[in-house]
């Protein structure tokens, strides 16, 4: 299939950090539809820039007119229309199984142009033996990987007590009893692997905490980070220093005066006089959950009108 | 039909959930996952990693790991044994070949090593052949809904995958999300006489030793804001421990506190009735060391914590159990996605406790069977031991800062365990466990050691120094930091005495003693000042270095200062100096015992 027009080389491969074999042969699978709308050609040209590419049409694989050589491709890239992914559903397990066989160990499978199929594919992929590397919603793509060693049978949860031996490929398998022994017996002299080396670059990438500009009006969800650089920590400290305490005069008209927190003696007087104060809106005594934002009693416990409000001010400011 | 009816079929519906928790969040998440799996007829066993028989790991049918992250990006200590077993280099690649698994990590994106233990675990299991059936979940405290933000969708995905792998047997339907989940236990009335046979479960746990309080002294100045105590405990038996080991203590709520709480809950009448605890939901965790027969008073004193800051699921229970419309409305608001910020402001940000919330939601009546569903378990707290058993046989000494701080709430916040410790008097007893720490002393007494332990970080440093001096070791250097030379220089007179006898080199930074406007000095500044000597000790003397204290910025700043000394005086490049430190850590010559 040769393109009849010139297309832009699109970078169709999403950037995924995972251990993969050096750029061996890639298999690009498309359909007549994606050939017509140009997606297939862009995929192929993009890949051809860096490696050898073999091409297949979806139908030939699904109809088993062609079979893939085992462990031949270091990556497989599939681009179909959303409708085609949909109609592929019933044949998906065997299609994925074929791709699995054709991939080299650690080879990657890239499913592109997915739209709604992106929801259901991950579990199908897992069942077929793939590990999901990335689900890229923005690009409608999924990248999966064939594990380092083969699992010949699709996965199901086998009860250990009725264990039928899983059929194996030509590989020397460690005897179960030996495995148990190796696992259970520990010798202090056995060296350890480097745990940090297990992590991929993606794993290690420093997460960026979402630091939106502080909106002083709305209730704040985010506490200041320990290494705060956006000023939220300073704002919180300000607030704590300047938060007021109520001095109540207890009369019927319920005048509440605000004083600064450093005025210790007045504070104690305020707490003592609290029982004489009455609430005008009816909610103040209920507790912070039901108080309005401007309630002078905010921060004080709930009380029954007339009850004494006791606060331990034994600790100085620091 | 119950899940156990399917044990004979080919497909396993057995699921092990192993959690490694720091403050109880991973445990709570594990319970939540188990409840959800129950809806699709999966029978879960939920256990703390350190309560699990690790040799059995290789024979499991399916494992979900729920793993928290400590302040320094390490795995919780309860997971360390399993992790060390997994890291062995001689394990075959196909060790876990038939084992499906999944990992959910709990962390905070404000920290660099976000969910690293969970990430490392999933990679390691995969490298040993285990099959990751579901992409790793990563809960983030910074998310508006907290950990739940990631947990809820992850569990949905997990359930879908589990159903694919193990479809429901015929005749069994998915149980819809219930209004009120069943309680995990039932409290059955029991005869008072059975209570007398009730033991303090810690009594029968040989890992816990009976300790008698000898001393409980404040070692900071009386007018200083922080109350730091020096505690001494004596033991009947020959308890042995090494420098850097950790004392494990379960707090007990004060009598008066429990009394008034029971009063608020209107439980005073039945507070001392005997109940037998019957576990109904075996897939939900219960507090450690729970006795079979007990009273509500005992439960609220020792086994559940009504002074804890509640989680979102607590508010869900309040919603189930309130009869008042105003409260229902408020709780619905709090529990909605839009109300998440408000709930955070109301509760988590100001550290409002369960008890305080219950006082405000006066119409909530919690049936006693739900006690373990609503109240979190009373967790043990850990304190680095500040003494050497060689100098103080049959004794453990601790240096503990009482936790007391202010938030927007007018009543100051107090630590649950430090509140308990603060009122202990000589001749009071308790049961204390001892856990191995990370610290190991150099096998050769002549190897120099450098101890860096500001604040209460000086506790394990004291145990190291005592042991080294006892053994006659020569080169011991202590870097200490605090705010004031006269107000909070912990064990200052002891250090002076060691210096006078030329047994240690002591360098102390007093950060607030400098006049206003002058830059504050910290331990890392002293290390930089002493860079040449530091290099002599480390590079030429092969010194072992210990860092202990707050895991916030201090360890990083200290390591930078060490790297700087290695660079300038060891003639290394900046990158190589950092690598040098990393090598030291790998060799076990650079040890951190820090806490958040």
Can you summarize this structure?
Chain A has 318 residues and is an alpha/beta fold. Chain A has ten helices and eight strands.
**What is Rg of chain A?**
33 Å
**Which architecture name of the domain at 26-146 in chain A does CATH use?**
3-Layer(aba) Sandwich
Low-confidence parts of chain A:
1-21, 150-154, 160-172, 244-259, 313-318
CATH superfamily of the largest domain in chain B: Flavodoxin domain
CATH superfamily of the domain at 26-146 in chain A: Vaccinia Virus protein VP39
- Give the CATH class of the largest domain in chain B: Alpha Beta
The helix/strand class of chain B is alpha/beta
**Biggest interface in this structure?**
A-B, 73 and 85 residues
Mean pLDDT over the full residue set of chain B: 92
Cofactor (chain A): [2Fe-2S] cluster; [4Fe-4S] cluster
GO biological process, one term (chain A): iron-sulfur cluster assembly
Subcellular location (chain A): Cytoplasm; Mitochondrion intermembrane space
Keywords (chain A): 2Fe-2S, 4Fe-4S, Cytoplasm, Iron, Iron-sulfur, Metal-binding, Mitochondrion
């Amino acid at each position: 299939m040769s393109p009849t027009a010139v297309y832009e080389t699109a970078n169709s491969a999403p950037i995924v950090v995972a251990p993969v074999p050096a750029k061996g042969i890639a298999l690009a699978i498309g359909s007549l539809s994606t050939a017509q709308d140009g997606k297939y050609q862009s995929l192929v040209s993009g890949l051809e820039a860096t490696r050898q590419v073999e091409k297949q049409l979806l139908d030939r694989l699904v109809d088993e007119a062609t079979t893939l050589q085992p462990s031949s491709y270091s990556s497989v890239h599939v681009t179909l229309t959303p409708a085609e992914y949909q109609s592929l559903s019933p044949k998906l397990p065997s299609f994925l199984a074929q791709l699995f066989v054709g991939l080299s160990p650690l080879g990657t499978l890239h499913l592109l142009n997915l739209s709604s199929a992106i929801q259901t594919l991950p579990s199908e992929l897992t069942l077929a033996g793939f590990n999901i590397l990335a689900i890229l919603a923005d690009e409608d793509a999924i990248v999966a990987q064939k594990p380092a060693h083969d699992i010949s049978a699709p996965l199901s949860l086998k009860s250990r007590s009725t264990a039928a031996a899983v059929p194996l490929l030509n590989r020397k398998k460690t005897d179960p009893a030996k495995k148990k022994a190796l696992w259970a017996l520990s010798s202090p002299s056995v060296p350890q692997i480097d745990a940090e080396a297990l992590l991929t670059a993606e794993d290690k990438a420093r997460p960026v905490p979402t630091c939106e500009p502080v909106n002083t009006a709305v209730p704040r969800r985010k506490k200041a980070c320990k290494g705060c650089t956006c000023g939220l920590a300073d704002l919180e400290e300000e607030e704590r220093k300047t938060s007021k305490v109520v001095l109540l005069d207890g009369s019927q008209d319920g005048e509440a005066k605000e004083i600064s927190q450093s005025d210790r003696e007045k504070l104690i007087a305020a707490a003592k006089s609290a029982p004489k104060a009455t609430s005008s809106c009816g909610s103040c005594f209920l507790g912070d959950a039901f108080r309005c934002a401007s309630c002078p009693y905010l921060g004080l416990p709930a009380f029954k009108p007339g009850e004494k409000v006791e606060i331990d001010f034994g600790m100085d400011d620091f | 039909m119950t899940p156990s009816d399917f044990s004979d079929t080919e497909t396993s519906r057995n699921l092990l959930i192993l959690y490694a928790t720091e403050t109880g969040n991973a445990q709570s998440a594990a319970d939540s996952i188990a409840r959800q799996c129950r809806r699709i007829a999966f029978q879960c066993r939920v256990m703390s990693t350190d309560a699990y028989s690790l040799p059995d790991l290789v024979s499991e049918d399916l494992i979900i790991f729920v793993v928290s992250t400590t302040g320094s990006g390490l795995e919780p200590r309860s997971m360390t044994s399993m992790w060390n077993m997994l890291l062995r280099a001689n394990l075959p690649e196909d060790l876990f070949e038939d084992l499906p698994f999944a990992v959910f990590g709990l962390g905070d994106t404000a920290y660099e090593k976000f969910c690293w233990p969970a990430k490392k675990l999933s990679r390691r299991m995969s490298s040993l052949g285990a099959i990751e059936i579901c992409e790793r979940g990563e809960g983030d405290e910074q998310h508006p809904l907290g950990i739940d933000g990631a947990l809820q969708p992850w569990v949905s995905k997990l359930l879908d995958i589990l159903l694919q792998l193990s479809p429901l047997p015929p005749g069994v339907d998915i149980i819809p999300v219930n209004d009120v989940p069943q309680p995990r236990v039932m409290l059955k009335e029991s005869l008072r006489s059975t209570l007398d046979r009730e033991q303090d479960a810690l009594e029968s746990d040989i890992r816990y030793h009976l300790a008698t309080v000898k001393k409980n002294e404040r070692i900071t100045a009386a007018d200083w804001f922080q109350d730091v105590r020096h505690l001494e405990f004596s033991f009947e038996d020959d308890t042995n421990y090494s420098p850097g080991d950790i004392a494990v203590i379960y707090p007990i709520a004060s009598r008066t506190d429990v009394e008034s709480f029971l009063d608020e809950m209107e439980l005073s009448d039945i507070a001392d009735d005997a109940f037998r605890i019957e576990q109904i939901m075996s897939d939900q965790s219960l507090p450690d060391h729970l006795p079979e027969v007990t009273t509500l008073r005992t439960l609220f004193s020792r086994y559940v914590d009504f002074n804890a800051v509640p989680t979102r699921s607590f508010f869900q229970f309040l919603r189930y159990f309130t009869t008042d419309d105003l409260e229902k409305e408020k709780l619905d608001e709090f529990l909605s996605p839009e109300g998440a910020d408000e709930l955070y402001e109301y509760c988590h940000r100001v550290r409002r406790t369960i008890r305080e919330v219950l006082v405000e939601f006066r119409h909530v009546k919690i049936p006693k069977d739900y006690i373990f569903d609503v109240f979190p378990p009373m967790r043990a707290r850990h304190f680095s031991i500040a003494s050497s058993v060689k100098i103080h046989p049959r004794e453990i000494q601790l240096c503990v800062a009482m936790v007391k701080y202010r938030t927007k709430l007018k009543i100051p916040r107090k630590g649950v365990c430090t509140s308990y410790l603060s009122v202990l008097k000589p001749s009071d007893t308790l049961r204390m466990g001892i856990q191995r720490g990370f610290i190991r002393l150099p096998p050769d007494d002549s190897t120099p050691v450098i101890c860096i332990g500001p604040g209460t970080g000086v506790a394990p440093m004291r145990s190291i120094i005592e042991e080294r001096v006892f053994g006659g070791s020569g080169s011991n250097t202590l870097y200490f930091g605090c705010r004031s030379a006269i107000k909070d220089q912990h064990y200052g007179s002891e250090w002076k005495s060691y210096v006078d006898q030329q047994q240690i080199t002591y360098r102390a930074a007093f950060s607030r003693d400098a006049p206003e406007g002058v830059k504050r000095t910290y331990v890392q500044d002293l290390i930089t000042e002493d860079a040449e000597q530091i290099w002599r000790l480390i590079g030429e003397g092969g010194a072992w270095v210990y860092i202990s204290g707050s895991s916030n910025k201090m360890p990083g700043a200290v390591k930078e200062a060490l790297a700087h000394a290695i660079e300038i005086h060891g003639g290394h490049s900046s990158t190589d100096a950092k690598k040098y430190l990393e090598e030291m850590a790998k060799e076990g010559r650079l040890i951190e015992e820090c806490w958040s």
